[in-house]
C-alpha cells in the first residue's frame, strides 16, 4: 500500500468519525451554525482496538497527520484536522503540536484560536450577521472573497438590557449564550449612556491578571468547569466613545485601551499574550469535546503577563482619521472594497503613537468594521488582537449613543 493510499483511507475514516460525531451533537444542524470546534466524539475503545490504525508506527502516524493538516487549508475541509484530534489522546497530542497558532499559520482551527492573536502579515476576513428580533449577533469566518458566502461560524453574542447597563454575552455556542453554558467565554458591558464599554474575559488572559470585583463575579457550575478554578470577569479592554464634532457626516470617535496587550506588540518583534489552551483542569469537564481538555490535571496553562513591568504601556487603538471627499461631499475611509454602505458605525482602528518614537499614529489597520447590508457587517482583524477581542469591540458599535452624536 502506498503512502498516499494510507492518507486517503485515513481521511475517509476520519471523515466518517467527524460526520457521526456532528450528527449526534447537532442533529444535522445547518452549515451556517457549525462551530469552529465541530464536536468529534472519541472512537469507542473496542472500535479503536479493532481499527487498522492502532499499530501504526508513531513516526508514520505523525507524517500522515502532518500531511493531512497541510492539505486542509480552509473550512469546511479543515474539520478533518479537528477530527484527527478527537480520535484519541495520542492523536490529540500530535495534532496540538502540529497545528500552529493563527499568527503563524493564518488559520483558525481549535476553539483556543479565537483567543489567540491574528496573523501579522494579512488580516483575517470575517463578517457579522445581526438578528434584530432576538437581539443576537453571529460572527463568521469568510470562506471566499465574496461578501455573501455562508462562512464558518466562530462566535455568537446576545444583548441583555439591564436597568443601569447593557451586557453582550459572548459564546462559542450558536444556540446557548447564557453565562452558565459550556460555551460562555466572556462579555461586553456598557455604562448607562452607552459611551463606555468594558470587555471581560471569563478566564485570565495572562498570569497575574486580576478579576474585576463586583456583584457579577461568579463561580460557574461544576458541569462547565472544575470548582477549583474560578471563572470571573477579567478586564481585557476598555472602549470609550467621544463627542463627534462632525455629527452624522463622519464616523464616531472612539479609542480602545487593551489592558492585556503591551504597546510594544505593534513594533517589529513585539509579542502579545498567546494562550495555548483553555485553563480547565477537570478530566470530566467537556467530556464530549476532548479538544477542550488540558494536557494535565494540574495547573492551567496561562501565558505570562507582558505588562508585569510598571514602565510597560498598554496598547491604545484609535480611529483612523477620515478624509474629505470633494465629489461625494462626505468624510470617507478606504475600506478596500470590504464596506459598501455608508454608516456611522463604520470604523478603522490603528495603534496610537502616543508612546511611539515619533508620537504619530501607525498606518496599519488592526481592526476594520463596516456595513454591507441591512443586517450584515464585515469585520477584519489583524495582529495583535484576537477574534474574541475584535468581536467585542465591534459589538460596542451597535449601541445607540445619543450623547456622542
Automatic annotation (TrEMBL):
> InterPro entries under this entry?
F-box-like_dom_sf, Tubby-like_C, Tubby_C, Tubby_C_CS
| Pfam families with a match to the protein in the record | Tub (PF01167)
Q: What CDD domains does the record tag this protein with?
A: F-box_AtTLP-like
**Gene3D superfamilies for the chain:** 1.20.1280.50, Tubby Protein, Chain A (3.20.90.10)
- Residues forming coiled coils: none
List each copy of the Tubby C-terminal domain by range: 114-400
Q: What PANTHER family does this protein's entry cite?
A: TUBBY-LIKE F-BOX PROTEIN 9 (PTHR16517:SF158), TUBBY-RELATED (PTHR16517)
Q: Which family does it belong to?
A: Belongs to the TUB family.
Name listed for the protein in its UniProt record: Tubby-like F-box protein
- Annotated source species: Dendrobium nobile (Orchid)
Lineage, top ranks: Eukaryota, Viridiplantae, Streptophyta, Embryophyta, Tracheophyta
Amino acid at each position: 500500500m502506498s503512502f498516499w493510499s494510507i492518507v486517503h483511507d485515513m481521511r475517509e475514516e476520519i471523515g466518517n468519525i467527524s460526520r457521526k460525531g456532528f450528527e449526534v451533537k447537532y442533529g444535522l444542524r445547518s452549515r451556517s451554525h457549525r462551530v469552529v470546534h465541530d464536536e468529534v466524539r472519541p472512537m469507542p475503545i473496542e472500535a479503536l482496538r479493532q481499527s487498522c490504525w492502532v499499530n501504526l508506527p508513531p513516526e508514520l502516524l505523525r507524517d500522515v497527520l502532518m500531511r493531512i493538516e497541510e492539505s486542509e487549508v480552509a473550512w469546511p475541509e479543515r474539520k478533518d484536522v479537528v477530527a484527527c484530534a478527537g480520535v484519541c489522546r495520542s492523536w490529540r497530542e500530535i495534532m496540538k503540536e502540529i497545528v500552529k497558532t493563527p499568527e503563524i499559520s493564518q488559520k483558525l482551527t481549535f476553539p483556543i484560536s479565537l483567543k489567540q492573536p491574528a496573523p501579522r502579515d494579512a488580516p483575517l476576513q470575517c463578517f457579522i450577521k445581526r438578528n434584530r428580533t432576538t437581539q443576537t449577533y453571529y460572527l463568521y469566518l469568510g470562506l471566499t472573497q465574496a461578501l455573501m458566502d455562508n462562512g464558518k461560524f466562530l462566535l455568537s453574542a446576545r444583548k441583555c438590557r439591564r436597568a443601569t447597563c447593557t451586557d453582550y454575552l459572548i459564546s462559542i455556542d450558536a444556540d446557548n449564550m447564557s453565562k452558565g453554558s459550556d460555551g460562555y467565554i466572556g462579555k461586553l458591558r456598557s455604562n448607562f449612556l452607552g459611551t463606555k464599554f468594558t470587555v471581560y474575559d471569563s478566564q485570565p488572559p495572562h498570569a497575574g491578571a486580576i478579576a474585576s470585583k463586583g456583584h457579577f463575579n461568579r463561580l460557574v457550575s461544576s458541569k462547565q468547569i472544575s470548582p477549583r478554578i474560578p471563572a470571573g470577569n477579567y478586564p481585557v479592554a476598555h472602549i470609550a466613545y467621544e463627542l463627534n464634532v462632525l455629527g452624522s457626516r463622519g464616523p464616531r470617535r472612539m479609542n480602545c485601551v487593551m489592558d492585556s496587550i503591551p504597546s510594544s506588540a505593534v513594533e517589529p518583534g513585539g509579542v502579545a499574550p498567546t494562550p495555548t489552551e483553555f485553563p480547565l483542569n477537570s478530566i470530566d469537564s467537556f467530556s464530549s469535546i476532548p479538544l477542550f481538555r488540558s494536557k494535565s490535571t494540574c495547573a492551567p496553562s496561562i501565558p505570562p503577563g507582558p505588562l508585569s513591568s510598571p514602565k510597560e504601556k498598554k496598547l491604545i487603538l484609535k480611529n483612523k482619521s477620515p478624509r474629505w471627499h470633494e465629489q461625494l461631499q462626505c468624510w470617507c475611509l478606504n475600506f478596500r472594497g470590504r464596506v459598501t454602505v455608508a454608516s456611522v458605525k463604520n470604523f478603522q482602528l490603528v495603534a496610537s503613537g502616543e508612546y511611539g518614537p515619533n508620537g504619530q499614529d501607525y498606518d496599519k489597520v488592526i481592526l476594520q468594521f463596516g456595513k454591507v447590508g441591512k443586517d450584515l457587517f464585515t469585520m477584519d482583524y489583524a495582529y495583535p488582537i484576537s477574534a474574541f477581542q475584535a468581536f467585542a469591540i465591534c459589538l460596542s458599535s451597535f449601541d445607540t449613543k445619543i450623547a456622542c452624536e
